[in-house]
Design a protein that fits this description.
Blueprint: E1 22-29, H1 38-53, E2 57-65, H2 75-85, E3 91-94, H3 106-114
Parallel strand pairs: 1-2, 1-3
């Protein structure tokens, strides 16, 4: 039987345990016509300040264009799920809940918020 570096038998060790001090910043901001990057820049600045105030290290910033209501149809959100499954971070920082799914699709947002707590 093999073991992990901490002595836990390999067959009972968990594949990945996220570091609670790491975070992924998810930015999905509507782009304006006069200043198309302003919303995304503001969301990233605020997310970085939020992380710094709480002692979190942002390991990746994931961006998606705003507008697709189904999170699973966005490349960035799919990437975030893949990282979560790999245990690559302990926290997700999202500026607005509607960045996950707009108000009219709140059931999709709630599904995605509950997803990490559900058995995989």
């Amino acid at each position: 039987m093999t073991s992990t570096p901490d002595g836990t038998p390999a067959d009972t060790a968990t594949a990945a345990r996220p570091d609670p001090g790491t975070a992924v910043l998810y930015v999905c901001a509507e782009r304006g016509t006069l200043t198309p990057q302003l919303g995304a820049e503001r969301a990233e600045t605020e997310g970085r300040a939020f992380a710094a105030a709480r002692g979190l290290t942002i390991t990746e910033v994931i961006t998606d264009p705003y507008g697709e209501p189904e999170p699973l149809h966005r490349e960035g959100w799919v990437r975030l799920r893949e990282l979560a499954e790999a245990g690559a971070f302990g926290t997700v920082i999202v500026r607005w809940p509607t960045a996950i799914a707009p108000n009219g699709a709140h059931e999709l947002r709630h599904r995605e918020i509950r997803w990490p707590a559900s058995p995989m």
